[in-house]
Amino acid sequence: MEFPVPLQPAQLVRRYQRFLADVVLPGGEPLTVHVPNTGSLLGCVAPGLPVWLSDSGNPERRCRFTWEQVAVGEARVGINTHRANALVGEALEAGLLPDLIHYSTKRAEVRYGIEKSRIDWLLSGPGLPDCYLEVKNVTAAVEQGIALFPDAVSTRGTKHLRELMGMVREGARAVLVFCVQRDDVAEVRPADAIDPDYGRTLREALEGGVEAYALRATLDERGVRLTHLIPIFCPPE
């Protein structure tokens, strides 16, 4: 995914009201920007961190600029959850998920399930069971290169796991893809200390036939690219 124009640098002052953050541009100008992430952004919101912004080009928009990336130590992290579905779509086209390469058609945002959800991608192909693919954006990490999901209690994420299990019981294929928008991690784990219910449900889903993959990104001010698979590890509870 290449940005139409390179991202603009700034420095984080504070995040507040969930979808807003204050930053300072290199010339010292203060600016309020949109935060496209409903999570806690654990580890990514310390005042003074370098951040990068996209420009909508629309001066009439409430927040013309959107916070896209942040530098945490040596890591570059993509915090825009709205990028994740398109990134995984590009990864499917590029064959980065070899177990899914035989699916010839994909549709986005399809309604499904008994809890009235929307699946991020519905894959289909001749002679193949429909494949329901759910995408989750990952930004949190701990030491030793371990990424964590979720970074806050996610009842919605747990609901999606239940929906995926329901599709498996109906004879379809169900896949969870962690879109890891940070370049310093080597594996993904459930954040059991943050949301134990999600961790338990994830383990139940994996035991019940839901497949899971994690794709790690490289990021810079010119774009974001998912580059390779990394393992998912669920330690014993």
Largest sheet: 6 strands, antiparallel
* Number of DSSP strand runs: 15
Q: What's the CATH topology name of the largest domain?
A: Trna Endonuclease, Chain: A, domain 1
In CATH's first tier, which class of the largest domain applies?
Answer: Alpha Beta
Rg calculated over all Cα atoms: 18 Å
DSSP helix fraction? 10-25%
Put simply, the count of helices is 3
Order of helices and strands: EEEEEEHEEEEEHEEHEE
Strand content: 35-45%
**Broad structural category:** alpha+beta
Strand arrangement across the biggest beta sheet: 3-2-1-4-5-6
> Whole-Å distance between the termini?
37 Å
What would CATH call the architecture of the largest domain? Answer: 3-Layer(aba) Sandwich
List key phrases describing it.
single chain; six-stranded mixed sheet; OB fold (Dihydrolipoamide Acetyltransferase, E2P); Trna Endonuclease, Chain: A, domain 1; 237 residues; 3 helices; alpha+beta
Task: Sum this structure up briefly.
With 237 residues, the protein is α+β, with helices and mostly antiparallel strands.
